[in-house]
């Protein structure tokens, strides 16, 4: 039972980490896109 709980926690942690990474990448992309639109003009 404890092993199952730890395993589920590990999976949840991995999903959270992946989501955070994707959010950070989206943030960087949005910032790059916004500055890319503003700066050249």
From TrEMBL:
Protein name listed in UniProt: Uncharacterized protein
